[in-house]
Structure formats: structure tokens, C-alpha cells
Design brief:
heterodimer, A: 181 residues, alpha/beta, five-stranded mixed sheet, B: 937 residues, alpha+beta, Aldehyde Oxidoreductase, domain 3, Aldehyde Oxidoreductase, domain 4, 3 domains, nine-stranded mixed sheet, 27% helix, globular, 2Fe-2S-bd (chain A), (2Fe-2S)-binding protein (chain A), Beta-grasp_dom_sf (chain A), Aldehyde_Oxdr_Iron-Sulfur (chain A), AldOxase/xan_DH_MoCoBD2 (chain B)
Chain lengths: 181, 937
């Protein structure tokens, strides 16, 4: 069993270098080593997407990555954002402003128990980032949401309010939607 | 996080059980929240400015990933706990047919050895036994065969995460770690319980005296032979309860055959089956426990829906063990529950966490991954029913229902007896039945045990009833909604148990609405149009209606409401937050009585209620009327002190006591202050109104809540009210001397606060007001079984791909009578979630029994299909909530009911599309494909 050194930026803070068993999942690393428990275990096998985190690519684009089936090595040298890193905090660490997706989920009463929320927040945030670069045709908004969030599992809400909230943000944010083709 | 040191009085003494003092720590989340400034004002204020709240009161914590769930907490998050976190791993049997002969410890990786190995012998050595509710053999002893799939044989404790993770990877699917010997016969036991509901209406019809019913005559029970129920056979109309029952049951069964043979009654007769379902709550169960030897205190952080019951049973378990000498106190730290659906109600899991903590040398965390949660978590009971519904051919009126249900409870009893009973009592759905003979038996099996999962037996039985009604309509050539209208139950009529429901029923109205809907009216035309536009696809429309009882027959909610001198309201309620938004809805309830929503609502409170100084004696379900009469003369006695949380219970039961407390607080606290400030001795409360947090009386200056509160505090008036209610299908009323007069309130316990400083509700600040008289509901109402109902209906149209068997929901219209909704968005969210769960039950979710099932440890979401967004009509479902009839309508319990009608509605829509009738769930694409293409394998 090999040990590997890992360095990354998590929610804007430098982490590592730290030596870990190479099979340590990113989810376990976040929870057991960094004490960031906002990223949730749902299935542990990459199906339910509750554990999704955001990874920033070299070109600044964002990607949603499942932290339960990807080991820490996959994130070495990367910038990672978890659900704890999306809101704005003041110097005292208090929340002062939420991201547009977080606000929309609140406004729409999108979640109930809240266990799958981090995954939805992150995947929706990544979707908005993509639409900034590649706007979607107005008549394809719902299909686009279905594709981006369709694999995420929620057991409480029936998805309706999550999807509605994302549509609301897409349609109200300038530049994300283009005319229907 | 703020400290939990005892010297700071942050632990609150609950009571002493078996010599061990139980403490409840303030809910973990609420302490975390105290640090979160900025959330009570401006954009981050949940209440907002409109009539509806801006968002859920727990919304910010959830959407920003704060530590709020029991599973989130590690040792380092707990003040005064050692930093080092240990980890526990449970080894579970994935087979049952052979003797367990020991553990091959060489399978544990050499560099990842546990420091403790807990086996059945370890439990015997330390005299640790499961609470009786859960049965025996917490860990399976060597030499015995597993009682059921997933039986735990040992627990291993590791002193760091890496060792634990490596060992778990090596052992979880390792076939050699548990050794098995020779084959043994399966473990068999008598059924857990049997019920029989026989009723025959009398000459007076639905509202008159019954010839026989459980409410009137009582219940009787079978004997067991060869593990099967054998009912008495002696029939005598003038005999005792069983002889009379058997007489009338025989009459019903004979009449059904006779009238059918004569061509008068049409019979729908068939076998109806449901599957094993996993609640699949998103947060798998976890426990973190620490035995603080220096302070003789055992701490536990849980994910339980029923922490109060755990705490009491855990105290007995410890007190009867060798650890009794080491443990003087048990502290339960409860948190927000990441979904429960009944799967975390009286689960056995926390007791394994407790044992791990007892043997640990530091805080120990036991946390199921999803494979383990499938293998060991409570399931929904599968029902196998043999049903006969008799319908008069001329009038279309239902004449009789004969049903025999076998309910598989799995390896441990848990709530199986209650589920078998509630399922049996619910099968009548929204219909009136003049005659019924319903048998329900809860059986032991080697399956993973089933518990109080959403539906509580009613989903299974009512779905069967709706399937029968749809079939009857088809066979009689009647419109299915018309047939339902002819048989709809009316307010004031007797149910299958002979009881009269307490809540007005609006089935007829709900049926008429669906009948007018275009999905129903135009269903033939829509089918024609769809199928011509989409060649090869089959289109069908289905309808079903259900009514869910809610309540337990021994509901015992508590609530406390108080204000500080600045007029800030705080509230404590007994129910846990499981996702339903109880903190939000209960806070909002105060507005109508006290002018503002609560600024602070503490949920899942267990400690404060000792301010009421109540005590209980026997089980409320079995106590005699004499015992109740005798005990109730003691003003501090109550049938039940506390209750478990259930999503469907909070709206009605918790709201009732919250409103009672608020009304007493208004009358005893704010009204006297208003009289003084306005200098008016006579104020008619009916003339008073709240407007934006200010009290109005025509012609007088407005009084803000802050001003009234300050005056009440200054004058030593009542500033807080704590109440306890008891409901056995009726509420208890009691009389109290308040403000110099005798008053009746719908509660059985009361305590008041005068002055006071705490923002949180603290028992120490409250003084009991002893009741002067009390009227508890008669114990005979225990035979009534259920009398509260909330109906819901679903109208659904589907498109079936006959090549693949895939069903797409084309349109969906729900109808719901939830009484007066407290927060509309929360109710709608419950409806949408219930619909999704119902779709899963109807079409996708399935666990096979026994060796192929969840207990073998190989199940996860790659095989267990829960509904995804594509399976649910995310963009095209509509709900109609029946407008409340009056502003006095109750806040009805819902949550689980909405998942019920969609199941039978889908089965009927599939039948209308394909001509294939299914009496069992789920109707998976594979099953449908095979049915439609019998020539293809």
C-alpha cells in the first residue's frame, strides 16, 4: 500500500503537502482529515452524486467531480471548492452573502432534509459556469437542467423545486440563455 | 462551539432511570447556529416580510454545508471530548443456513489490527443485553446459526481512521472472515402478532349501532400452531367476544359466496403483493460515543428519529450490565436528521454504537456506509394479501370485504405488530364497508427486519384496495370515479373498526374535482391523439384515492413558548427536524396568537419537559380504564410523557400543543399587560388584532409585542408557558386555576414561567400548575385503532414503450386535503417528495427476499433503483390543495399519504395502456416488457 504526497487548494486555502494512503477517497480526506463534513456520503460508489465537489480546470472552467469514488491523487495540485466555500464570509467567519444558486434553493424551498443539497449546489454552480461560456437556447433550458442534474438523487423532494430554482437562475441571469434555434 | 461542561449547566438533567441519570445536551445544531450572526436580519432572515416565510429556518445551515447532522460530528467537534477519534467496524453475516463457527482473524490486515474485538462472549462477560424491544442475540454467539441476514457477529475497534479504512476495505466483502460450519434448519418463531377486524353493521346502517365491531365488542386473538395463527372456531352469536366474532365472520363469508352464486354480488378476488423497500434516507445511520470514565458519563451523538426512547432503553441496558458501576450519567446529543422515513425510528443501530463506545478507549464512531445501511437498516414490510371485495351488481355499492394479510416482519419484531394492525385497519381506504372480516398476521422471517417506514402498512393495503376498485369498475362497466362516489365514506359513519372518524372527510368533493379534470374527461381522446402521434407507444390514464390515518393512539406532544423582555419569542418543541421544516412551521404558528413568529425554535427537545414534573405508569395501549381513572387523580400523572418523531405527526399533534401554549401565554402574559398599558380593565379578546407585531384595539394606541413583553416581565406576569397534551384519538381536556378563574384547556400538563432570563426554554424557570380535573379519552378507544384521516388522490397519464416496458409519466394531477396548511411551500414539497417515493414503490424499487436480498451485503444504489428526476414528472405535475372549509380546520398530518394513491393510479394507467393488470408492485420495466412480449425472453 503506497503513500502519496498531496497538495491542493480547498476553498481558497492551501492544503498540504500531506502524505496519505493512495486509496484515501477525496470524501474521506475532506471529512476525516480536513473536518469539512458539508460534502456528504450517499452511496459511496459514485451513483447518487451527494458527494460532488467543484474542481477548477487550468482554463478556469469548473467541473463537478464525485469525491467518493475519486481518490485524493486525482485532486493533487487542483483547486477544489466544497459547499462550505460558496458563500461569502466576513472577517469573523460569519456568512454575509450566499451564491445565486444557494439563494434560489432557499427561495424555492428546494430541499428538505438537506443531505443531497451540497451535491445539487455544486453541480448547479458548475452548470451556470458552463452556460456563461456556452449559453443555452431558450427552448433547451429544461433539457439542459435534466442533463446536468438528472443523476443526482434526492429522496425528500421529488426534484421539482431544485430544478425550478435552477431554471429561475438560468433565465434571470444575463448571458446564459440565447434565442431558441 | 460552546462548551458542554457540566459546571456550566449545559447538560440538562432529564430524569433518573435505573439509577442512571439521563441528560440531554442541547441539540448540536442549535449551538452551532448561535455563532452564525447575520442570519436573523436582512436577506438572511428566514421569516422575510411576506405572509409566507422567505425560506426554511434551517435553510442557511443546510445550503452552506454546516455541521448539523448527527453523522457530521467527530470527537474534535465536541467540547471536552478527547481529540482522538476511534472507529468501529461491524461484521455481519451474509448467509443464514449454516452455523457460525468463529472469526478468522488472520483476514484482518497485519498493519491495521483492531485494538478491541467485541463478540457475543464479550457481551456475556460484561452482562450486556439488548433492550427487550429488540429481542436477543445482539451479537450472534459462536455455534449458533444467524437469526436473519445481516446478523452482527462482532465489532472491531480501531484507534485511527487509516487502519479502520484499510481493514474495512479488506473485510467488508471478504467471504472468509466469518467462518461457517454445518448446515442447520432455518430459525423459526411464532408470528409477532395477529389481528382480526370483524364488523357487521346493524339496522341503523353506517351511523347506527353495529351488530359486531372491535370498538363495541373488543378484540380477540388466535393461538399459534406450527408457527401459524389458528383462530378460534366456536361460533356463537350470544357468546363471548371471540365466539360472537367467529359467528359474524362466518356469516360474512357465507353471504359473500351465496350472493355471488346467486348473481347478486360481483366479486373481485385476488392475491396482492408488495415488495421489500429500503427507506434509502440519504444520511446513513451513524453514532459517535465516548465513555468519559473520569466523570462516569457516557456520551452519544445519534442520527435517531427517536432519541428519547433510545435514552431510556439505553439506561436500562447499561444499568443491568457490568458497566453500571462505571456509568452514572448518559448524555444524548441529538442533531438534525438527514432523512428518516421511519428508518431511524427505533432502529437497533444506536445500540451497536453504544456498545462500541463502552469498549472503546476514546470516542468511537460507528457509521454505516450504504452497503451496510442496506444490509442492516429497517425496511418497509412486504405484504401478501388474499382479498375479496363484494360489490352489489345493481347499485354498485360495496357489500363486504374479506382480507387475509401475511406481513413479513423480518428477523426482529420491531414495530411489526403495529404495522400489521394499522395496515389492516387502513385497507378500507375512502370507502364505507357494511361488512368486513380482515385478518392480518405479522410473521418472523430471516429477512432484514422491517420497521415503521413511511406508510406504516397503509400504503400496502390501500393500494390493493384501489387496484380492486379499479378492477371492479372495469368488470361492472362503470366509471371508476362514479363507483367510488357511490361508496365514498361520509362524515359521521363508522369505519371497519366501528369507530367514527374525528375529522370531517371530503372524499366526495375530491372525487368530483378529479371527475371534472381534462385528464379524466378527455382520456379516451387523449389516448387516441397520443397513440396516433407516437406510433408504437401505448397511452393510459389511471386514478386512485387514499386516505391516511395519522397518529398513534397515544400521541403525547409537548411545547413551550416564552418571550424575553424585548419581546423576542422562543419556542421549544419535542419533534425532531427530519426535513419537513418543523422549526419553520411551528415558529410561524405563533404569529396568529402572539403577533410574531418565534425568533428561536429549538427542535427535538427532550430536557425541558421535566418542568412539567409528569410521570407515567403502564403502557397507554394496554392500561385498564380503572388504572387510568385511579392514576389520573394525581395531577402529575400522564399516560405517556414523550413520543417519537414522524413527519406525518408534527402538523397536527405538535401544532396543537404549540397553539395551546401560545394562547395561554397570550391570555396570562400579554393580555394583563395590555390592560394595564391601555388602562382598560375590560377588554374583549375577540376585539383584539395583531398587525405587524403590534396589538390593536380600536381607538387605542398600538402596543408592540416588545412593549407588552417588557411590561409583563416588569410586573412579574407569565412570560412562558409549557404544556403537554395527550391524544388517544381524542384530546385530553383538563381544568386549571389561572388568573383567579377555573379554565379548561385541551392539555393535561401545564407549567408557567414568570420573569426569567434564558433565551432557551429551561425547566428550572418553570413552575407546575397542577390541574384540578382531567378528562382522558376512554381506554376503550384503543380498540378504535385509527380515527384521524387526511385524504389525497392522484390522476395520472402514462405512455408505455412496449418494447422496453418503460413507463413515462405524461401528466399528473394531485389532490390533497391537508386542512389548513401552515407553510404552503413546505406542504407542496412534501407532496412532490411523496409522489416521487410512490413512483419508486410502483415502478422501480425492489429488494428480493432472503439470500438474494439486502441482507447479503451487496446492495447499493447501482442495483436498487430509486426514482431519478427522469422518472418523475419534474416539469409537469400539478397539485390542488382543497381550500380549508373554515379557519378552524386542523393542520392535518400528511407527508406519507401523498405517496399512496400514485401507486394504484399508475397500475391502472398501465392497465388502460396495455391491457395488463398487475396486482403486485413494483411493475418494473423488465416485468412489463416480459408481460407485453411473452414470446421474447
Amino acid at each position: 500500500m503506497a503513500r502519496i504526497p498531496v497538495t491542493m487548494v480547498v476553498n481558497g486555502e492551501q492544503v498540504g503537502p500531506v502524505e496519505l494512503d493512495e486509496y484515501t477517497s477525496m470524501l474521506d480526506f475532506l471529512q476525516e482529515y480536513l473536518n469539512l463534513t458539508g460534502t456528504k456520503l450517499g452511496c459511496g460508489i459514485g451513483v447518487c452524486r451527494a458527494c460532488s465537489v467543484i474542481v477548477e480546470g487550468a482554463d478556469g472552467s469548473l467541473e463537478s467531480v464525485r469525491s467518493c469514488i475519486n481518490n485524493v491523487g486525482r485532486f493533487d495540485g487542483k483547486k477544489v471548492t466544497t459547499v462550505e466555500g460558496l458563500a461569502e464570509h466576513n472577517a469573523e467567519g460569519e456568512i454575509v452573502a450566499l451564491s445565486p444558486i444557494q439563494q434560489a434553493f432557499l427561495r424555492n424551498f428546494s430541499f428538505q432534509c438537506g443531505w443531497c443539497t451540497a451535491g445539487f449546489v455544486n453541480a448547479a454552480t458548475v452548470l451556470l459556469d458552463r452556460l456563461r461560456r456556452e449559453p443555452v437556447a431558450a427552448d433547451r433550458v429544461e433539457d439542459t437542467i435534466d442533463e446536468a442534474l438528472g443523476e443526482h438523487i434526492c429522496r425528500c423532494t421529488g426534484y421539482v423545486r431544485y430544478f425550478r430554482a435552477v431554471r429561475e437562475v438560468i433565465e434571470s441571469t444575463p448571458g446564459l440563455v440565447k434565442e431558441a434555434e | 462551539m460552546e462548551g458542554f461542561r457540566q459546571d456550566r449547566r449545559n447538560f440538562i438533567k432529564l430524569c433518573t432511570v435505573a439509577g442512571i441519570t439521563l441528560f440531554a445536551a442541547p441539540s448540536l445544531w442549535q449551538l452551532g447556529r448561535a455563532r452564525q450572526a447575520g442570519s436573523s436580519t436582512g436577506k438572511l432572515n428566514w421569516r422575510g416580510d411576506g405572509p409566507d416565510p422567505a425560506f426554511r429556518s434551517d435553510g442557511i445551515a443546510k445550503v452552506t454545508g454546516q455541521k448539523i447532522f448527527g453523522r457530521d460530528y467527530r470527537a474534535r467537534d465536541m467540547s471536552d471530548w478527547p481529540q482522538q477519534q476511534h472507529y468501529a467496524l461491524a461484521l455481519r453475516c451474509n448467509r443464514v443456513e449454516r452455523r457460525f463457527t468463529g472469526i478468522d482473524w488472520t483476514q484482518v490486515p497485519a498493519d491495521s489490527q483492531p485494538y478491541a474485538r467485541i463478540t457475543a462472549q464479550s457481551l456475556v462477560d460484561r452482562k450486556l443485553k439488548l433492550p427487550p424491544f429488540y429481542g436477543e442475540a445482539m451479537l450472534l454467539p459462536e455455534g449458533q446459526s444467524p437469526y436473519y441476514y445481516g446478523h452482527v457477529v462482532a465489532m472491531l475497534l480501531f484507534d485511527d481512521f487509516e487502519k479502520y479504512a484499510i481493514a474495512k476495505q479488506a473485510l467488508q466483502f471478504n467471504e472468509r472472515i466469518i467462518r461457517y460450519g454445518e448446515e442447520t434448519p432455518p430459525v423459526e418463531r411464532d408470528p409477532y402478532a395477529s389481528w382480526r377486524i370483524i364488523r357487521v353493521e346493524g339496522k341503523g346502517g353506517p351511523t347506527g349501532e353495529d351488530l359486531y365491531s372491535p370498538l363495541q365488542d373488543g378484540l380477540f386473538f388466535p393461538q399459534y400452531r406450527d408457527r401459524k395463527a389458528e383462530w378460534p372456531t366456536v361460533a356463537n352469536q350470544a357468546g363471548d367476544v371471540s365466539e360472537r366474532g367467529i359467528y359474524y365472520a362466518g356469516q360474512i363469508r357465507n353471504q359473500v359466496e351465496r350472493e355471488s352464486a346467486a348473481g347478486n354480488w360481483h366479486l373481485v378476488r385476488g392475491q396482492y403483493e408488495t415488495q421489500i423497500i429500503d427507506p434509502m434516507m440519504m444520511e446513513p445511520e451513524a453514532a459517535n460515543g465516548w465513555l468519559d470514565s473520569a466523570r462516569s458519563t457516557l456520551h452519544l451523538v445519534l442520527t435517531s428519529q427517536s432519541p428519547q426512547d433510545f435514552q431510556e432503553m439505553a439506561a436500562h441496558m447499561v444499568a443491568e450490565s457490568d458497566f453500571a458501576a462505571d456509568i452514572k450519567n448518559i448524555v444524548v446529543h441529538s442533531a438534525v436528521v438527514g432523512g428518516g422515513f421511519g428508518g431511524k425510528d427505533h432502529s437497533i443501530f444506536p445500540y451497536y454504537g453504544l456498545v462500541a463506545a463502552l469498549f472503546g478507549t476514546a470516542p468511537v464512531r460507528l457509521a454505516n456506509n450504504r452497503f451496510e445501511q442496506f444490509q442492516a437498516g429497517l425496511k418497509r414490510h412486504p405484504f401478501r394479501m388474499q382479498n375479496t371485495l363484494a360489490v352489489d351488481r345493481k347499485s354498485g355499492k360495496f357489500q363486504a370485504l374479506v382480507a387475509e394479510m401475511q406481513v413479513d416482519g423480518g428477523g426482529r419484531q420491531n414495530f411489526s405488530p403495529a404495522i400489521a394492525m394499522v395496515g389492516a385497519s387502513a385497507i378500507q381506504g375512502v370507502y364505507y364497508l357494511p361488512r368486513n372480516d380482515i385478518i392480518s398476521v405479522a410473521n418472523q422471517s430471516m429477512n432484514v427486519d422491517s420497521g415503521s417506514m413511511r406508510g406504516f402498512g397503509t400504503l400496502q393495503t390501500m393500494t390493493a384496495m384501489e387496484m380492486m376498485v379499479n378492477q371492479a369498475a372495469e368488470e361492472l362497466g362503470m366509471d371508476p370515479i362514479e363507483l367510488r362516489l357511490r361508496n365514498a365514506f361520509e362524515t359521521g359513519w363508522r369505519n371497519t373498526q366501528g369507530a367514527v372518524p374525528m375529522v370531517g372527510v371530503r372524499y366526495r368533493e375530491m372525487l368530483e374535482r378529479a371527475r371534472q379534470h381534462p385528464i379524466w374527461q378527455e382520456r379516451a381522446e387523449r389516448k387516441k391523439i397520443f397513440e396516433s402521434k407516437n406510433p408504437g407507444y401505448l397511452f393510459g390514464t389511471g386514478y386512485a384515492i387514499a386516505t391516511k390515518d395519522y397518529g398513534t393512539g397515544a400521541a403525547a406532544p409537548s411545547s413551550a413558548v416564552q418571550f424575553d423582555p424585548e419581546g423576542r419569542l422562543s419556542l421549544a418543541v419535542e419533534f425532531m427536524e427530519m426535513g419537513t421544516g418543523i422549526g419553520t412551521s411551528q415558529s410561524l404558528l405563533l404569529e396568529s396568537v402572539l403577533g410574531r413568529a418565534a425568533e428561536h425554535c429549538e427542535v427535538g427537545v427532550v430536557d425541558a419537559w421535566r418542568g412539567l414534573q409528569q410521570f407515567q405508569t403502564e403502557s397507554p395501549y394496554t392500561m385498564s380504564q380503572e388504572h387510568q381513572d385511579q392514576m389520573s387523580t394525581n395531577p402529575l400523572w400522564t399516560p405517556v410523557i414523550g413520543m417519537a418523531s414522524a413527519a406525518s405527526m408534527s402538523a397536527y399533534f405538535q401544532s396543537h400543543v404549540t397553539l395551546q401554549a401560545a394562547q395561554i401565554l397570550f391570555q396570562q402574559g400579554l393580555l394583563p399587560a395590555a390592560r394595564r398599558l391601555w388602562q382598560r380593565d375590560n377588554i374583549d379578546p375577540a376585539q383584539l388584532q395583531w398587525q405587524d407585531g403590534e396589538l390593536q384595539l380600536e381607538g387605542l394606541p398600538l402596543l408592540s409585542l416588545a412593549r407588552l413583553a417588557a411590561e409583563a416581565h416588569r410586573n412579574g406576569d407569565v412570560t412562558g408557558v409549557m404544556v403537554h397534551g395527550f391524544n388517544r384519538w381524542e384530546w385530553t381536556e383538563a381544568e386549571f386555576d389561572l388568573g383567579g378563574e377555573r379554565q379548561t384547556w385541551v392539555i393535561d400538563g401545564l407549567a408557567l414561567r414568570r420573569g426569567g432570563s434564558a433565551d432557551r426554554v429551561r425547566a428550572e424557570e418553570y413552575q407546575v400548575v397542577k390541574r384540578k380535573a382531567v378528562r382522558y379519552p376512554r381506554t376503550a378507544l384503543n380498540n378504535a385503532m385509527v380515527t384521524y384521516y387526511a385524504p389525497t388522490a392522484a390522476l395520472v397519464e402514462v405512455a408505455v414503450n412496449p418494447g422496453t416496458g418503460e413507463v413515462t409519466i405524461h401528466g399528473l394531477q394531485n389532490y390533497m386535503d391537508c386542512g389548513r396548511p401552515i407553510v404552503r411551500q413546505l406542504v407542496e414539497g412534501q407532496i412532490e417528495g411523496g409522489v416521487a417515493m410512490g413512483i419508486g414503490h410502483a415502478l422501480y424499487e425492489f429488494l428480493p427476499p432472503l439470500g438474494e436480498g439486502a441482507g447479503n451485503g451487496s446492495w447499493n444504489l447501482n442495483r436498487y433503483q430509486v426514482p431519478l428526476a427522469k422518472h418523475v414528472p419534474v416539469w409537469n405535475q400539478q397539485h390542488e390543495m382543497l381550500p380549508p372549509e373554515t379557519d378552524k380546520d386542523p393542520h392535518k398530518g400528511i407527508a406519507e399519504v401523498v405517496m399512496i394513491p400514485i401507486v394504484a393510479a399508475l397500475a391502472e394507467a398501465i392497465y388502460q395502456a396495455t391491457g395488463k393488470r398487475f396486482n403486485e408492485t413494483p411493475i418494473t420495466p423488465e416485468k412489463l416488457r416480459r408481460a407485453l412480449n411473452p414470446q421474447v425472453l
